[in-house]
Each structure stands twice: as structure tokens, then as C-alpha cells.
TrEMBL record:
Catalytic reaction annotation: L-homoserine + succinyl-CoA = O-succinyl-L-homoserine + CoA
PANTHER family the UniProt entry points to: HOMOSERINE O-ACETYLTRANSFERASE (PTHR32268)
Binding site for substrate: 223, 359
Protein's recorded name: Homoserine O-succinyltransferase
Sites annotated Important for acyl-CoA specificity: 327
Family of the protein in this entry: Belongs to the AB hydrolase superfamily. MetX family.
Residues the record marks as active site: 153 (nucleophile), 325, 358
Quaternary data: Homodimer.
Role played: Transfers a succinyl group from succinyl-CoA to L-homoserine, forming succinyl-L-homoserine.
Enzyme Commission number, as recorded: 2.3.1.46
Pathway(s) this gene product operates in, as recorded in its UniProt entry: Amino-acid biosynthesis; L-methionine biosynthesis via de novo pathway; O-succinyl-L-homoserine from L-homoserine: step 1/1
Pfam families with a match to the protein in the record: Abhydrolase_1 (PF00561)
Length: 382
């Protein structure tokens, strides 16, 4: 059993940001698994997606030494002893990004320049900024070169960006269920979710902390919108279909005919997900991270030419996509594949026929895990 121990590192130096702003006296929360070898050549960095954290794998123990219920890391199917990313062989690092709400400096922390909670005043951060901060952490750990950098969804964008910002520090990049940028439809989904948050009466321009409230209604709706996009139509139909909840006083048709009551199982499920999310996630963090998603576009400085953008990358690549992922479709991964082939880069690509939609990258799919295992065994560990 892999036991996880959260750690934190403080950075006094100023970190310049893509926006022209900067941040200083910041903390990064992280966890490590496995043992760093003598020449520090077996490090694997895991980059997280929107609402995940540095707790990538393993479980937590309480004060009595018992396993904390439901404390498994978000990619525990992938990382651990004997798993595809084998912590008996690799030193795995999970980092919580700047601006997040799981320990690293973000909107909920105090601004050292004002001694006030950042709130809406936290600077805009980008994928490139996160990669720069991760590089600072690696420097502090004495790790110059990564055996691999790996991530799914937004984490995959960070992995891709690593190969462009620090090409000499990455030997392999594993990019799962990701894209070289967001489509207009994806940006639209993010904007609707953000509008749900900022129009919540409890948002107070992002300074809700000063008013002792939380914009939970907006967060609930934002999560419901996002969750719909993470699942495939097939999965929703199989899991919920048009099933009704057990309710009383229904019409002979089977419906209550109410505009406000929860009648369908899918409605109940989405509300549950929204309620749960609003209890642990920060609204300003949601705004920051979805904006970082929107802004990511490494081809933009090259007139939209992705092949020209990826010419800087020297790493070897594994890309994985899923057939029913309509938010980050296989066609988006194939754009990256083509650009890498244009540059004659060493790459492997797997398109997994899975019914689970975008969330497939988090699930226990034997073919998917087998592809990653084979790549790490044959190439990363070689």
C-alpha cells in the first residue's frame, strides 16, 4: 500500500508571469512517491487537470495510523508499486499549481504585499506560468532532467508545454486526452460556467471572503455544466437513461409535471455533483484555471502553425485519446501527432475505443493502462 505524505515548499524569489505581473513569497504543495535514484534520472512529473491536486496516488493515514476513507489519489489506478507508472522504479512528483485551492498559493491565501486575502486580486496565471513554477520546484529538489512529464486534459497541456519551455529537461512526454488549444465550443462552455459564478449574488466581485459568504450556487451550476462535458452520451444513457426518481403524487404519465422538482435520475446526479464540488472548491480558482485553459495556444506566436511551434520539442512522446471524448476529441490529439511527425519526432499514439467520454483518462481501462505500462517499460525505463 502506497502511503502519501503532503509536503510544501516556500519560494521567496519573484516568479514573473506571462501577464507581466509577478508573484513572490509563494508556496507549492506537492507529494512524492518512490525513491529518487543516485543520478536523479528517474523522476516523473505528473501535471494535474482542473479540479485535481498534488495528491496523485496512494492514501492518507489518520493520527491512529488507519487509512483515511476515500483518500485515494486521483490517479491511483495509474501510479504506484507495480502499476503502469511504477513507483518501485520511478520517483513520481505531483504538484498543486499556483492559483489552486489545495495548498499552493492561490486566491484564498494572503497577499504578502497587502496582508489581505488575494481574492479577485490574485494575478492571472497561464499553463506556461505553472510550468515555470514546477521547474522552480524541480530545481529545489536538485532534479535537472525529467525521465517523463505526464498529464491528462489540462495536465496534458502542461506536459506539452514542458517540452517547449524546457526541451533539454524532458526525455519523454505523455499527453493524455488533451489538445493543442481549446475549440470555440470549449471556450464557450467555460464562459457559461464562469458567468454562473460571477453572477451569483454572493460573488461580490471575487471578494466574497470579506463578506463571509461563498458563491456556492454559481459553483454548483459551473460544476454541473462541466460534468456534462466530461461524460459521453452513451455513458449517461446507460447509467441514467430516462429513469425517474421515486416520487409521490405523479401524474398517470409518470411525471410530476413540475418546473422545479427533481424528477429524473440524471438531474439528481448532477445536483449531487454540484453540491459536492461547491463544498471543497474555490470560485476564484475556478475562474483562474478555466482562463488558463482558454489562453493555452503554443501555435499562436507562430501564426497558428503547430508544426512550427513544436519544432522546439526534442522529447519522445506518447499520446493517448479516447473515441467518445468529445471535449478533447481524438482529432485534437492527431493534430499534435501530425505536427510532431512533421518535425520527425519519435512518438507513439494510441486511440482507445472506450465509452466513458473525457473522464476515461481517469478510469481503470485495461487497454489504456496497458499502453502506458508498455511505454514506460519499453521506452522511459530503457
Amino acid at each position: 500500500m502506497l502511503i502519501a505524505t503532503p509536503q510544501s515548499m516556500h519560494f521567496a524569489d519573484v516568479l514573473p508571469l506571462q501577464s507581466g505581473a509577478s508573484i513572490r513569497a509563494y508556496d507549492l504543495s506537492y507529494e512524492t512517491y518512490g525513491t529518487l535514484n543516485a543520478d536523479k534520472s528517474n523522476a516523473v512529473l505528473i501535471c494535474h487537470a482542473l479540479n485535481a491536486s498534488h495528491h496523485v496516488a496512494g492514501v492518507y493515514l489518520d493520527a491512529s495510523g488507519e487509512v483515511v476513507d476515500k483518500s485515494e489519489g486521483w490517479w491511483d489506478t495509474m501510479i504506484g508499486p507495480g502499476k503502469p507508472v511504477d513507483t518501485d522504479r520511478f520517483f513520481v512528483i505531483g504538484v498543486n499549481n499556483l492559483g489552486s485551492c489545495f495548498g499552493s498559493t492561490g486566491p484564498m491565501q494572503v497577499n504578502p504585499d497587502t496582508n489581505e486575502i488575494y481574492g479577485a486580486d490574485f494575478p492571472v496565471v497561464t499553463v506556461q506560468d505553472w510550468v515555470d513554477a514546477q521547474a522552480c520546484l524541480l530545481d529545489a529538489l536538485g532534479i535537472q532532467t525529467l525521465a517523463a512529464v505526464m498529464g491528462g486534459s489540462l495536465g496534458g497541456m502542461q506536459a506539452l508545454s514542458w517540452t517547449l519551455q524546457y526541451p533539454d529537461r524532458v526525455r519523454h512526454a505523455v499527453v493524455v486526452a488533451s489538445a493543442p488549444n481549446l475549440t470555440a465550443e470549449n471556450i464557450a462552455f467555460n464562459e457559461v460556467a464562469r458567468r454562473a459564478i460571477v453572477t451569483d449574488p454572493d460573488f461580490h466581485g471575487g471578494h466574497y471572503g470579506r463578506h463571509g459568504v461563498l458563491p456556492k450556487r454559481g459553483l454548483r451550476i459551473a460544476r454541473m455544466i462541466g460534468h456534462i462535458t466530461y461524460l459521453s452520451d452513451d455513458v449517461m444513457n446507460e447509467k441514467f437513461g430516462r429513469q425517474l426518481r421515486e416520487i409521490s403524487a405523479i401524474h398517470e404519465t409518470g411525471y410530476r409535471f413540475s418546473t422545479q422538482e427533481v424528477e429524473f435520475q440524471i438531474e439528481s446526479y448532477l445536483r449531487y455533483q454540484g453540491d459536492k464540488f461547491s463544498e471543497y472548491f474555490d470560485a476564484n480558482t475556478y475562474l483562474l484555471i478555466t482562463r488558463a485553459l482558454d489562453y493555452f495556444d503554443p501555435a499562436s506566436p507562430f501564426g497558428g502553425d503547430l508544426s512550427a511551434a513544436l519544432a522546439r520539442a526534442s522529447a519522445k512522446f506518447l499520446l493517448v485519446s479516447f473515441t467518445t471524448d468529445w471535449r478533447f476529441s481524438p482529432a485534437r490529439s492527431r493534430e499534435i501527432v501530425k505536427a510532431l511527425l512533421d518535425n520527425q519526432r519519435d512518438l507513439s499514439y494510441a486511440e482507445i475505443d472506450a465509452p466513458h467520454g473525457h473522464d476515461a483518462f481517469l478510469l481503470d481501462d485495461e487497454r489504456y493502462l496497458g499502453v502506458v505500462r508498455s511505454y514506460f517499460n519499453a521506452k522511459v525505463a530503457a
